[in-house]
Amino acid sequence: METSGGDGEVSGKRAKPSSDNAGGGEEDRISALPDDVLVHILLRLLTPEAARTSALSRRWRRVWTLLPELRFLYTQDCRQIRAALEAHEASLRCLFVGIRDAAPDSVAAWLPAAAAARRISGHLVFHNIERGNNAQEEAEERGAFALPCLERATTASLHLGLLGLAVPPAGVFARLTELSLTCVGIHGPGKLGHAVSSPRCPCLRKLTVSDAWGLDNLVIHSDSLQQVKLEDLHGLRQLTIVASALKDLDVTRCFMNNRKQLVASISAPQLVTLVWDDLYDPSFVHLGEMEHLQSLWPFFFLVYGEDSLLHNHACLSLVRRFKTIHSLTLALHYFWEIDDFDYLMEDMTMLPDITFFKLVVSANGHAFGASAFHVLRMCSGIRRLMLSFLAPTNVEVKLPFVYPVCLFISCLIMT
Amino acid sequence: MEVDKGKGEAEETRKVAEADRDTVTLKSSDGKLFEVSKEAAARLSTVLAGMIAGGSIDDNGTDLKQIGSEALENVVDYCNKHANSIPSAALISSSISFNTAPFKEPEEWERKFVDRLSHDALFDLVEAANFLGMERLLDVTCHKISEMMKGKSPDQIREVFNIKNDYTKEELEEIRQELAWAFYDD
């Protein structure tokens, strides 16, 4: 890029008679452009660089303050963002902030300024790049900053790099349609479930909470949510979702490391897709009527293991709930070492009527023909079959984290 | 356009002929004529699209008094090249949700297209693109200009664009202090 830019300049200058330079009479073409075109140019620069054009001449003094989007990347000092927000005048359709190792109080210094004073009217993206060590204890030591009420923002994506987020106890996120919180410790005084429920988030359609600590009990009542993804909510014990418009629900690895006192209650009558990649037992997971459900992805099934495994029980008892299912994804998993384990496929005695069957196999070097055939024998009515094979992995250590990473090898269509 | 053939008026025939033509003729400020595909013109320029839809396209050359022949030639050249290029996947899938990049990057041919321009020709083209409401061409040319600014100090930028510093020393110092946050990572 630098090179091509440089070349352009050189050829540009070469194209002009050199005598122009002597008289200093070369025209200033850029300053003659209208404000909206200059804004168009400055939008392509990071905000500090755009703001520095103030120093060019009087013509440029306030051009950068008209920018509808501000972008900070790899900033190490949050004071820079606060100062920029204070100097900037226009309302913001986008504020993008990327920081390394932000401290909670420094975030508290700019985020409220952005929300209340500057009034973000569009997208807020905050990405805090963590130091790599994701120890929970450290996150707690680093404290929390208060999430301001984003009254006019339409989407917010906060990747907090283990910073704590203090949920406000009141306030309405009136226009928010998408909220994503990842890598975050959730703190009081407010409850996250309350904050994202209908009275306070009346337009929220898509909610993602991933890799979060501090959510012991999550209760969401929403008339607007269509998509909910909850992934790796460490320490979650109770989950309640009442969402009349919900179509996609994905609960992944929220309960599997916390097997005591679990209660989940889902009421989502319009649900179309359910990924319940997690422990399941009808005694503690209450799934309401799901007449419109088309697609199901239950917990994975271990082909070899100790008898009465929680995984396999979770998988089979969820699948058993349904007599027919349009699309089923079933993951068969082999540990590296299987010598001391029992063959568990015989526990799987029936499957629902399936139209589209996706079989995901992570065989880790073992022959999987028998187990795959065991499954396929039970679904004679399928019209499409997709086989996915996962690359061998060091499963004993990383089991929960690897199998969604699908290395797709072959797709077989049967009529 | 629905035309009642029974009437057979000369006026109608002329209109039909105009509607059937698949190019439009554009006339630069210095009187030169350029032909461009009607489809590409309507797709790439909101102003030309409006003129075509409104029937204010002149068969003998639509006057574009604000645009010189060199810039108009570049506009027409861009339209023709655009019509012949296959958009890349990046351009087709533009569903940006939490994307950091505010704009679609120029295609390789678009880069080359603006790289070969002289300094003045580049600015003539920006002005023409702005005047004609050619969003994509404005993107490409503004991208080129932003590249010429990137990583440069105010002094260097002034030199590249011949900007005259009309601040006093005191004013400049004041700005530097006010915008210390923007300068301190130099």
TrEMBL record, chain A:
Q: Which CDD domains match?
A: F-box_AtFBL13-like
Q: Where is this region: Disordered?
A: 1-29
The residues the entry assigns to the signal sequence are none
Checking InterPro entries in the record gives: F-box-like_dom_sf (IPR036047), F-box_AtFBL13-like (IPR053781), F-box_dom (IPR001810), FBL15-like (IPR055312), LRR_dom_sf (IPR032675), LRR_FXL15/At3g58940/PEG3-like (IPR055411)
* Ranges where the F-box domain occurs: 27-77
Q: Which PROSITE patterns match?
A: FBOX
SMART domains linked to this entry: FBOX
Q: What is the protein named?
A: F-box domain-containing protein
From TrEMBL, chain B:
Q: Where do the record's region annotations for Disordered lie?
A: 1-21
Q: What is this protein called?
A: SKP1-like protein
Presence of keyword Thylakoid:
no
What species was this sequence derived from? Digitaria exilis
Task: Tell me the protein family, please.
Answer: Belongs to the SKP1 family.
Q: In which pathway does it act?
A: Protein modification; protein ubiquitination
How it assembles, according to the record, is: Part of a SCF (SKP1-cullin-F-box) protein ligase complex.
Q: Which domain of life is it from?
A: Eukaryota
Keyword Mitochondrion belongs to the record: no
The SKP1 component dimerisation domain extends over: 136-182
What is the recorded function of this protein according to its Swiss-Prot or TrEMBL entry?
Involved in ubiquitination and subsequent proteasomal degradation of target proteins. Together with CUL1, RBX1 and a F-box protein, it forms a SCF E3 ubiquitin ligase complex. The functional specificity of this complex depends on the type of F-box protein. In the SCF complex, it serves as an adapter that links the F-box protein to CUL1.
Which keywords, in A-to-Z order, does the entry hold? Ubl conjugation pathway
